[in-house]
Design brief:
This protein is of the alpha/beta class. The protein has one domain. Helix content is 37%, strand content 15%. The strands form two sheets. It has a five-stranded mixed β-sheet, sandwiched between helices. Strands 5-6 form a two-stranded antiparallel sheet. It is globular and about 50 Å long.
Amino acid sequence: MLTRDKIYERDEPSKDAKKIYIFCEGDTEVNYFNYFKGFSSNIDIVTIGNTNTQSDPKKLHQDALLKLFGNEFEKPELSFREDFGDEVWFVIDTDHWNKGNKIENLRTNCAQQKNWNVAQSNPSFELWLFYHFNKTKPLETEIEKYVSFKDFLNNQIPGGFNKWKHPLFIQDAIINAENNFEKSNNQPKYFSTEVFMLAKSILPFVKDKINKGLEKQFGVI
């Protein structure tokens, strides 16, 4: 199987590269966005998984504050420059996090910082992966046949979503997810995802290599 490293030469981010920090609930999200690392020297995609399985939106936000700004006991681990257009994103599932207004609290906290954003999927990140190959929303009656949305997704895509090549269809995912996006009470409706907004921030920097990859892997652009 061809891997990305056999198709692309990695570009190290320049000292002036725009940084996009992506705080993720789980490994699936980290693996997905890591795919685009090294596609351009003008962007530095930094993925941060949860700490000690603490994927609660509040915990993710606290971790971001500590890593980017530090506190009286610890220096910041990461550099955040508003003047360079750096961005912070929290990629979260709806799942059970709506209890106690945890997601809304995260949104409120992000609104207090410039270029801090939430990319919420309802019900889960796998919905974003679904839109890489589907132009319309999934049918709830079909999903009910499976234990989880992830199992449903694996049935929809032969062999499951391949993290080594399927992210190349990010442009299709942006179009499909945005076309099917609906919002209610400041959050995505069921079968809607905001990840396309984050993807739009990444795409201009990686588009050329994505198109080359599509041609090499699939014979399409």
